Amino acid sequence: MTYHQLHRPGTLRLAPAPAPAPRPGALPPTPAQAPLPTGFRIVLDRNTRVLDGGRALLGGAPVTRLLRLTPRARPLLTADRVLQVRDRAGAALADRLLELGLAHPLVADLPAPTAPEVTYVVPVRDRPGQLERLLASVAPGATVIVVDDASRVPDAVAAVARRHGARLVALRRNLGPAGARNAGLRLVRTPFVVFVDSDVVLDPDTVPTLLRHFTDPRVGLAVPRITALHTTGSDNWIGRYEQARSSLDLGDRPALVRPGSYVSWASTACVVARREALGDGFDERMRVGEDVDLGWRAVERGWRLRYEPSVSAAHEHRTGFADWFRRKAEYGTGAQPLAERHPRSVAPAVLAPWSTAAVLALLAQRRWSAPVAAGLCAATALRISRRLSGTQQPVRTAVQLTGNGAVAALSQTGALITRHWWPATAVLCLVSRRARRAAAVAAVADVVLEYRGSAAGLDPVRYTLARRLDDIAYGSGVWWSALRGRSPTALLPRVQSPVAKRPKVASSSSARSASSSRSHSS
Questions:
Q1: Which residues are CB-neighbours of 507 under 8 A, at least 6 positions away?
Q2: Of the residues 77, 108, 192, 232, which has the fewest C-beta atoms closer than 10 A?
Q3: For the segment 171-225, what is each residue's pLDDT rounded down to a tens digit?
Q4: What pTM value is reported for the model?
Q5: How far apart are CA 160 and CA 455, in angstroms?
Q6: Which of 519, 515, 482, 473 is nearest to 498 (CA)?
């Protein structure tokens, strides 16, 4: 089916319905090559800078790029930083801005699905109360498959499913979240599937809003913001910490999810997916991290994974200390299985050569440390300013970019010291004054930068305690998985040049007519 058959001028619809689900073991499909439809609107990311009166754009993720626009492309962006697709050249430019992370869809302006074909898949084990609460929040009349993952009291789960008109799949043995979701996925016959965990409550707008993203034919998955569900037990100090800094809450900034970006992974506690983008589904060998693996595999095949924080799904966080601590450690144990499958994506930190050298100089804590680090930053700013030649105030912009890069490098190093590498840090602190000083600075800076008293409702002392326990639990899980896997891959940061290859675009001729043939990364 061609683009013209699907999108008549002036119309917007959900992207084409997928081909039939692939056979087990078949090569998973890649996205359709249809351009963005006429009327599709995007807005520049809040961190994207418009330079020289609209002649260039600077921003993007995971690599910062300078994109020079041709005279034909400049009028496509309005004063409020919005671009609306009107022709193929505009579609190609919009697609490129989306792919580089320079812009995001204006989801409120995308068409609402009229009668989307969606199936909800809910894995559950011995949570009849939570299941009842979730199914009550699902839109009436929706097709729902409840997969009972070998509950100890299956009759209670079956009664809830029957009461809400859901189809029940009862597994004889416990397969874990991945296996349970796959059991439901194999029964899905609709173009779209919603995976939602039983301890989640959906807002009425969450799924309909996420479905709007599939107007882009390259979007394979879309996820909402995961917020804290307020319950009778969520007001203790662990519960308040989770409200402020849950591992599942990815923030308020929309994003194209990809490794190394500011949103590098997404949870499937709630996710809407195009059926064909899932291939054979989750890796059933993984009990933790299976959602990250699923998303990264889709991204590797060319699908887009969108994070949409304008809508949310409320998750019942663990608030009992032992249960909470154990779960944080379990999250860490997913590091090594992910490292085996995605060795370049799972690094705990990604640093540029210059920032690595600057950080190492500062960690040495010698008289020459600060001057050397400052010299490296100055040389980097000079190099970037040369790349920005031809723009207004290249030196000022280069200094700002270098400063942001230095702060990011120091932040990642602090996380390595206090979180991923804390066992090694603890040993070094026993024998080294410099190690103790570095650990203290990292721990204090982390709390100063991260603490939000008004959001957490938690005093700094208990927030700091919870933060350090969070790091200890997660780091312990990472080290355990690395030792069990006999590989340090999950513990090793990645040092890579900030210069990236020019990305492919949907239509090179259209893209060249809309933007310059070169984009510079910084």
A1: 35, 88, 91, 92
A2: 232
A3: 999 999 999 999 999 999 999 999 999 999 999 999 999 999 999 999 999 999 9
A4: 0.88
A5: 35
A6: 519
